[in-house]
Amino acid sequence: MAALQDDGTSELVVRAREGDEAAWSRLVERYSGLLWSIARAHRLGDADAGDVVQTCWLRLVERIGALDDPAAAGCWLATTARNECMGVLRRRARDLAPVALGARPSSGPDEVAVARDRLGRVGAALEALPGRCRTLLRLFAQAASYAELAAALGIPVGSVGPTRARCLSALRRLVP
After folding, report:
1. 18: which residues sit within 8 A by CB, 6+ positions away?
2. Cβ atoms of residues 135 and 86 within 8 Å
3. What is the tens place of the pLDDT at every residue in 57-77?
């Protein structure tokens, strides 16, 4: 068992591919904290964060044989976690969008149509932005702190404000 703790990620992945339960356990032990911290950086609640972490492990089980570089499993898991978090945030934004745009449940059909049209234009403009801008603006809309945004994007905290300003400017140009 002591030798297993000294294994590098690459060897653990290879052994896990072959069905070694101890290697799987060590991978889970090694990377679960990272996955939870990414989910928390995206300001997900306990249930959503738990779902993201569980989904990441499921994706690794499904794709472990296709990993080109077993030593990069940690990076692969982190990227998968970010993508899963963004999926949760997109679904949440879709569910909350009419309320966020001022449409009330008692709004008339005209108000709902206008709110949906504006949401569609903003959504289309967001999708046209580069990936980093989409991520930054979506996380910022969820009230993420600059430190959380910097961690999620892999940029210095001091770059968040200027990057955000450039992204908002680009979004304004794209929304008709």
Report:
1. none
2. yes
3. 999 999 999 998 998 899 999
